[in-house]
């Protein structure tokens, strides 16, 4: 199953290069945000490829968790908002939120305690297991001495706090854009491509959630590759020349 995360990493990298090149040519801020998000996706998928192939270590899992589970979808949603919002003041606020949120997430995941034993228990360890490292005992727990868990729940919860709202924004923005274009024949390519991006993001979300939650590596691996491929197709379709009305 390692071949699919590797394929997802390669597709994500090619996707990021194409979007980045378009940003260089057109200087659209949303393209820069999407290029960064796709680079994150490629890096996280490559970390998953290494972990599934030969076993996880702490740096690989931190990279997979931070870039894939926590920050990837928020950057996609940030690009979607930059595409839809024109007010410069709102864009400035969004930029500050993204910078602060990224720095905070990086520091939390970088400094979180990792249960190394949990990395070897499954081919696809869960964040709630990896970021729980047992108990710190001052003596014993039976004579009134302190006994408390050594864990950093925020490192695990960040994936929920960041990605869930961002996914709603991403899909809602894409569906709203597609809805506005549905009756314009000359924008049919953009309409289908926009829906394709939303569908691809949903495939990745479902594959990651179900595959990781149930430790079904084929669902996780195929979901990564299929989802990013559908998103890539959607972007290419949406970026193609509009049809000329008769």
The side-by-side strand order for the widest beta sheet comes to 1-2
Count every helix, treating DSSP H or I runs of 4 or more residues as helices: 10
Estimate the strand proportion: under 5%
Please provide the ordered H/E string of secondary-structure elements. HHHHHHHEEHHH
> Could you tell me how far the N terminus lies from the C terminus, measured between alpha carbons in angstroms?
49 Å
CA gyration radius, whole angstroms: 20 Å
Shape: globular
Low-confidence stretches: 136-140
Secondary structure category: mainly alpha
> Fraction of residues in helices?
over 70%
In this structure, how is the largest beta sheet organized? 2 strands, antiparallel
Mean pLDDT: 84
Q: How many extended strands?
A: 2
Key attributes of the depicted protein:
single chain, 246 residues, mainly alpha, two-stranded antiparallel sheet, 10 helices, 2 strands, globular
Overview in brief:
The protein has a domain at 3-86 and 159-239. Helices cover 76% and strands 4% of the residues.
Model description:
- The chain contains 10 helices and 2 strands.
- By secondary structure, the chain is mainly alpha-helical.
- It has a domain of 165 residues.
- The chain has a two-stranded antiparallel ribbon with strand order 1-2.
- Helix 4 packs parallel to helix 8.
- The longest helix has 29 residues.
- It is globular, with a radius of gyration of 20 Å.
- About 2% of the residues have low confidence.
